[in-house]
Each structure stands twice: as structure tokens, then as C-alpha cells.
Fold this protein.
Amino acid sequence: MTNQTPNFYALLIGINFYFPHRLPEGNYYKNLRGCVRDINNVETYLKDTFNLTPDRIIKLTATASDNPNQPQEPPELLPTYENIVAKFKEVTAKAKPQDRVYIHYSGHGGRAKTIFESLKGSMGLDEALVPCDIGQPNSRYLRDLEFAKLLEEMVEKELVVTLVLDSCHSGGATREMETDDWSIRSGGFIDTTSRHTDSLVAPLQELAQNWQASTEYSRNITVVNGLLPEPKGYTLIAACRDNELAIEKIFEGTERNGALTYFLLKALREYRGTEIPVKDLYDLISNLVHNDFDRQTPMLIGETNRTFLVGQSISFTPGASLLRSVPVTRTTRTVPVMKVDITKNRVQLQMGEASGLKKGAEFDIFRFGTWNFEDSEQRIATVKVVEVGASDCWAEVTKLHNEFTTRELTPKLIEGMIEIGSPAVYLSPALKQIRKVRVILPDPLPQISGVNVAMLPDILKAKKEQVEGHRWIEFYSEYEKDEKVDYFVSLNSEGEYWILDAQKEPIKNLLFPIKVDESEATTKLIDRLIHVARYETILDLDNEDAFASSLNGKLKVELIKSVKREQVVLNADGNVPVLQVGERVVVRIHNESNRTLNISALILQADLSIVKFYPEGAHYEVVDRGQSREKRLDMELPKNYQEGVDVIKVFATVDATNFQFLELPSLDQSRKGFGNQKPKNALEQLLSAVVDEDNPQRNIRVVTDASEEWTTEKVEVVVKKM
């Protein structure tokens, strides 16, 4: 039990009983049965956890009695409009800056004809909390603009506010869906009754001005079905999304609870509610609620980097790891586990196609409550996505970690290993550096003077260790069938080495074979393999992070040619243009994001060289949002080439970044690594790993904040001699 917390106040409102009434068209707010129980349970939890004294808990409840026309509580304790407004103002007046205020409302949400016609128009609606006396003469709703103002006054006083709304405001809810076991906390209609057009909160003009100021720069003008502006300065957990239902039902015994409140208290008791980060708490309870009721998905909005109730800020160290073997500290790249299916050895994650997720994506799953993802001891499993839906996916377990590791070939989940709400850290697609090579010898073996052809696989393996950068390739024998090969080395009847891709097709642009019997043939072959591996690693360099949505698709690269004084986009619809040597084109780079970007462009040429061609004399060119840059380019081919494929690769970054480190000389020329230059940011750390000549990694994972800071696009073009 914690020490008494003198700067903690609670305002708890629960409404089971609604005075008998009939609204236009026969509508009425039906009595509920779980709201007062919600509030009593919350009160007990707060007293047990924080030792709150009665003077710090303000409670308004309406409980049904034997008299269908009267509740059990006296008038001064009922959640009427007047009492609710008065208690909000009382808490605000009593509390001091930095005091914590917890507000919990369980009851009906409603919609009514607006009293703010100047702001919403004559046909506008007000979203509202529904006081218990809404059916009485001269009664009023607590309307959206009023509620927002009451909360704004708390925030202005620098109170640390946490708000839970176990109600819904959807006009689509229907009472016909209710049963003896459960019901919906919404009237399901629009109240057109003429009511007071004044407010006890503030003058209507002041309310309208506050609302306009709160929504002026907000992406989402309102949240919680229009009840509140986007929260600023407080934390809000709401029972459901727009057009969803806030449900109460019997979970234990014979009494009802609101689903949100029930799972909230259950989680707080189990996971030390005074310490749990609100984001972790939400990930847990939202999935528990949604798993029980597919038409109810709680919402978390506002200040989410706090601990629940206590309101302490959560601090964390952004990850700086580049290699897959090192865990990463993240918050923006995590999603919660929604379900665990032990029988199929998989988990459901709250991420899908809408976020750009694809099959094959991988996640590391950590223990519930983990915030430091560099703590490898907290890692439970690695999973791979096998089914992708619009907003969720199923991922199979591929590896277990720490004490969960077993000797079984196929890792198996067991009951309780992974909890609902556990964080899954997204691992962006691996950037392969080390490439696997297999030598294919013809049958029968050709007879080559001075060369033991049968021993070539062993000769190449031995020679590899003597070549600088040899770690970029690994030789595998034909007996290692489980290994997926990247390149094949073939030997033709003329005694020439050829390098083939994984489909056993000749590597693009690699035109000149090596004679087996020429001087230093094995060294030259291995050096070519290393060069091709580095070239293709840079070619594959892309930001496929499904979380980095702010820049994904926001860089547009067009190859333009003037045809009869008209500009023709040659690469429209993914077309690969065919151009002749000497033809002039324009590369147009357009920044379609809402951020200023730094632009650099490389050209990967037919001789397997990589050259930064834009901008000249600087590492990057600054391009404002919505603006374009153009660069003229004369098509060329290296000496002795009749045809080749060039790739124009454009990078856009938020931070200043030097991409010259990716440059490569032409094939068979001496390469260089990152050099003595120290990386200046997370992206340059990645680039230094990509071009490391002597210490490549089997899989580089882009698991740093760099993922949110860059994007790239490429255009292929075939170049031919006339």
C-alpha cells in the first residue's frame, strides 16, 4: 500500500437511474445497472491504493430504488447537470498546480439539437453526457463545449488530469440489441427537445471561442464522437470509437459492470496501477475489451507518455542499434498483442495493410510493461507475419528467447508465455550484406591445362580468405541444400567463370567472363563477387519500415524527355524507358511531404559503379515541401558496353546526410569503405554498416530512429548504343 497522496482528487460520476420521462417521438434514456457499481469499485480501488480520504473523493451517483420515480441518493448527491458542473468547479478550485485529478464517468452518452447554432449551424448537434434528471422540466445536458471548457480550466491551472469515459455517443446504437445480461450506454437517438440555451459553465460566446481555439490547429477536429476536441494537457481513455458501443454486462457474480471499467480495474490491480505507463495499460485493456466485444474498441488520446493516475512522465532512451543482434529501445515502433493462439503457435498484432505491413515482416515480442527494449532479458519471442488484414495481422512464432528457449526444432507457445497487450517491436526488413555462393561444375569436367578443375570449389574457398573484404561472401557446397544461394559461379566449356544470380541468370551488366587459367583468376573472381554483393546491397537499400508513414510515398522521381516541345514522363506507371547513348533527359525530384527535405541522388551504372550526381559540390540540396528540383542527365555507357541498365536512386532525408559514402568504383577497381569519417546521425550509422568493407553483417536491421527520417525512390532505365 502506498503512502497517502495529499495532492490527489477524484471526481466519480455513475448513473443507473434516470428519472421517468418521454422525449419527442417516444424516446427515453433507459435505466442502466452497472454504472454505480463501476464507480463504487473505482472508489474502493483509489482508497486502497492511495489512502484517499473522503474529502478528496467527490462522488455523484443515481441508484434505482424500490420507488420507480425516485433514486436512493438525496438530491445534493445526484449527478444532475447543476451538481456535475458545480463539482467540476469545486475540484478545480481546491486543487493546486501539479495536483492529480482523476475523473471517471459511467452512464449514458447522448446527442441533442445544438444550442450553439452560430458555431454549428441550425441543423447541428451537440454531443453530451446525460445527467440523471434529463427528463425533468428545465433539465439540461452537459454539452460538448461545456465539457471541453471544464477540462480546459483544469489544464490551465496545471492540474495533471486523467479522464475515463465509460459511455458511448453513437447515434447508431439500438435498445433492441440489449439482453438481460448486457446493455448499451447510449440512447441511440437525437433529442430534439427545446431546452435552456444558457450555461452554468461559462457564457455561450466564451464556450464557442474556447472550442474554436481548441480545434483550430487540430488534425482531428473532435474525438470521442465529437464530445471533446483533441485532448491537450490531459489523458483520456474512452470506452469506444465512433459508431461503436459501450457495453455493460455481468462479468462476475450477478452484477453488471461496464466493460471498460471492469478490465481497467482488473489490469490496475494485477499490474501495480500506480506505476504502469498509460500506453501499456491501454494496450492491455483495449484488446481485452475488443476480444470480448468486437463492436467496442477503447480509445487512448492526449498525454500518453505518463504513468496512469500518478501522471509521472515516462522517459526512455531512443534506440541507436543498427544490428539485428542488438535489441532496440523504441516506443513509436511497437504494437500490442491482441490475441494469442497457442494451438496454431501464433499471435495477433494490432497492425495491418493500412500501415503498409506485408507478409514476412518480423517483430520481437517483449514482456508486458517493458519500455526499455535494449533489455534483451525482457524479450520473449520473434514472430513472422503470415496473414495480413486491414488493421491487424497474424504472426507465427519463429524463435523463443531467454528462459523460453527450447531444444525443439519448432518453437512452441505455452499458456501464459505471451500476454494480451505485450509490446511487439517492429523489425524492418533485413538488408542482406553477406551473400551465399555455390560453384556449379559442368559434367563432364572440361580439361584445362594447368588447372585442377575438380578442386576449384576448394581452391576458391581457400583463396577467399586472402582477399580484402572476403567476409562479404560465403561459399556453400551442393550438399548444403538448406541454404538459399544468392550467386552461382559457373564454368563453361570455354574455361570461363560466369557469375549468375539466384535464378541462375547472368548478373545484369556483368558482361566479361574471367578465364580460369589467366593470372590471378581466382582472386579476380572473388573480388567481383564482393563488388557485386556490395553493389546489390546498396541497390536494395530502402526504407520499408511500415511505421515510417510520414515520408513513405512522399518522394516522387520522374524521368522527363522533351518530345515536340512537350514534356513526356518516361517512367509513368512503372515503365522502364529505353534510351540511346547521348540522349538528354531531365530527372525531376518532387517533395510531396509536409516537411523540408534534403535531397541526394546516385546513379548506379552499367559497369557496377555508383556515383552521386546530384547535387554537385554539396552533400545534399534542400527542397521545401511542395517544391521540385530538376537535373539534366546525358545518357552514357561505359567503354565496350553496347547495352546496360542504369538505376537512378534518390534519397530524401530530414537530417543532413552524406551519401557519397555509398559510391563505388567500376568493376575490378579498388573499393573503399566508410573511411575515417564518423557518422553524424543514425542514418549515417546505417550507411557506415552498409559499406563496411571488412565487417559486414548477415542481416542489417534498420531499427533506429533513422527510419522515420528518410525515404528513397529509384528509376530504372535501359541504355543502348545506336
